[in-house]
Design goal:
By secondary structure, the chain is α+β, with helices and mostly antiparallel strands. The chain is built from seven helices and eleven strands. It holds the Pfam family Uma2.
């Protein structure tokens, strides 16, 4: 009886010198570091994403928009603010009987559009049932997240809103540590600030900024913050059922 031998997989090609130099630069980059580059090929962007992962650079975010690339190193303040925004969203949905599927900071890629980005957090809320249990999301077929979160404690060079618009993200939250801006996608592809969340219309946005400020209270750890957010959400009137 003969047996077939599966040939070994070909080794991945070594990263280009430019990619290796960028990875080496990140060894010395401090939190808040940003680097903007122009004239970058989409293939080079994807190569850098893989090299970043292979090098274990978990605190590095990379955005790409048709030749323009921005690299950002996040720090403790950024991560703390990201966590409390996520905690508020998840607590409110859970305590008010809603449903969601979190997708964290997953990399959104579209080779056909030559664009990509990594939000700080993103959520399927209205469309959670369409992606629940999915191991991989294909943005050419699957719906985009209903809500994306961006923490902006340092000034960005690359305007990421056109990328979000191209991916048809209906709602983007931008939080800088003192102000939350809720931006809704318009029919013309632009974003407009709103006082009402499209993903969570019953959420009292007027109370949210004060709750997010709990992250700056040195007397509270996140277990205490979680308990406060749960108590707040449970005390709210039940959201009206949606059709």
């Amino acid at each position: 009886m003969s047996t077939a031998t599966v040939p070994p997989a070909a080794p991945a090609p070594a990263p280009s010198r430019r990619t290796q130099a960028l990875i080496a630069l990140l060894d010395y980059a401090e939190p808040g570091f940003r680097l903007s580059l122009g004239g970058v090929r989409y293939a080079d962007y994807v190569e850098l994403l893989h090299a970043r992962t292979a090098a274990g650079r978990a605190g590095v975010k990379i955005a790409f928009d048709r030749g323009e690339m921005e690299i950002m190193v996040v720090g403790a303040t950024h991560e703390r603010l990201k966590k409390i925004v996520a905690l508020l969203i998840e607590t409110w949905i859970t305590e008010t009987g809603g449903g969601y599927v979190p997708s964290g900071g997953m990399t959104h890629l579209r080779a056909d559009m030559e664009q990509g980005f990594e939000p700080d957090e993103c959520y399927y809320i209205q469309n959670w049932a369409k992606v629940a249990g999915t191991r991989g999301i294909d943005f050419t077929k699957d719906p985009p997240p209903d809500l994306a979160v961006e923490i902006e404690v340092s000034r960005t060079v690359l305007n990421r809103l056109p990328i979000y618009s191209a991916f048809k993200i209906p709602e983007v939250w931008r939080y800088n540590g003192s102000r939350l801006a809720v931006l809704l996608l318009q029919p013309d592809g632009s974003y407009r600030e709103s006082s009402v969340s499209r993903a969570m219309p019953a959420l009292p946005l007027g109370e949210v900024t004060g709750l997010l400020a709990l992250a700056d209270d040195v007397s509270l750890d996140f277990a205490a913050i979680t308990r406060r957010l749960r108590a707040w959400a449970r005390a709210l009137p039940a959201p009206a059922p949606t059709n």
